[in-house]
Q: What sequence folds into this?
């Protein structure tokens, strides 16, 4: 099976712009979670989508949003970018049927905000 | 686990030795724990998991120990190899869907 894929892998934006990142989960996985990784804050949970619905949400401002499509692919959007949004954005997929199941991560999208 | 900021704790071991990486988790209600390995430029890779009703679980060359009394998790790697060099994260599931809370990470460096 193919793993979790994320596009693009690298992105440079300027403050005030908006960005959309894409994640394709492992085939058959219905849950997609997004995480932000920075040197200062480590790995932090953004939100989780399951069956096109946001199931869980972390403590991030409303500028961070996401959605999931019927094929389980997910996108996250960050509006009005700030310098502090520079980070590695990771998505992880799982079957979504239990809290005790493995989440598999993609390689991430590295976002640099100038 | 707590995020530790810019400085990651580092464990340096000789190739062939055993490694022990420790993690303190934050919530006594957590019931599922996972260790991930992250190599430079890659996403976290699943290593091993353990449920709260267990205190030990073994995989291939890895063992995870869970001490719920002191909220401590450890990862033991036997016969450490250069390919084990990476940052290791523990994560806990706070019984809230698929939301994982990650520790700050430990960098493992294996000397040949």
A:
């Amino acid at each position: 099976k193919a793993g979790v894929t994320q596009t693009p892998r690298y992105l440079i934006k300027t403050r005030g712009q908006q960005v959309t990142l894409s994640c394709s989960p492992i085939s058959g996985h219905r849950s997609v979670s997004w995480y932000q990784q920075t040197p200062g804050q480590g790995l932090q949970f953004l939100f989780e989508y399951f069956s096109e619905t946001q199931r869980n949400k972390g403590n991030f401002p409303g500028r961070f949003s996401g959605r999931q499509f019927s094929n389980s692919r997910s996108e996250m959007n960050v509006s009005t970018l700030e310098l502090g949004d520079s980070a590695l954005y990771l998505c992880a997929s799982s079957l979504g049927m239990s809290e005790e199941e493995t989440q598999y991560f993609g390689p991430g999208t590295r976002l640099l905000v100038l | 686990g707590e995020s530790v900021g810019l400085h990651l704790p580092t464990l340096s071991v000789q190739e062939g030795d055993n490694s022990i990486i420790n993690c303190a988790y934050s919530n006594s209600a957590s019931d599922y724990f996972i260790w991930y390995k992250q190599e430079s430029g890659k996403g976290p890779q699943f290593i091993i998991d353990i449920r709260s009703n267990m205190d030990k679980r073994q995989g291939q060359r890895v063992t995870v120990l869970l001490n719920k009394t002191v909220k401590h998790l450890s990862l033991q790697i036997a016969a450490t190899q250069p390919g084990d060099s990476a940052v290791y994260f523990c994560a806990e599931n706070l019984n809230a869907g698929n939301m994982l809370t990650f520790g700050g990470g430990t960098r493992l460096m294996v000397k040949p």
Remarks:
- The radius of gyration of chain A is 13 Å.
- Chain A touches chain B at residues 4, 31, 33, 35, 39-45, 48, 50, 55-56, 58, 90, 92, 94, 96, 99-100, 102-108 (CB under 8 Å).
- The CA atoms of residues 65 and 77 of chain A lie 5 Å apart.
